[in-house]
Amino acid sequence: MIVLADWQPGATAAACWLLLSARAAASIPNVWDLVQGLHGRPRHRSAVWAGSSTALGLAAVAVAVEPAAAAGAAAVAGLVTVQSLLRLRPTPPAGIVGLTQAALGLVVVAATAAGITQA
Prior knowledge:
With 119 residues, the chain is mostly helical. Helix content is 81%, strand content 0%.
């Protein structure tokens, strides 16, 4: 909505929403799975892979809609990669998971904003 309020094209706003959706699609199943592990419940890695694949697809669509969203799409790809690498280690406490997710989300927003404003 802020992008539209700044009189940016609709394609730019759509790309921003797609990247926001991509971030959520990757992170929500990942965090859910980590929390399941913290509680000793069965983990569902297939949900994490599905979320990651969906996120990468949404990021690709965002770039197709608005090429200036490439930096944000690269950040989403980086988010998926970092989350995959972090899953190789023992699950950290919930607070660390939350802080990590907040930092990764900020990187996606900053990269998207930088790419859009440079265009």
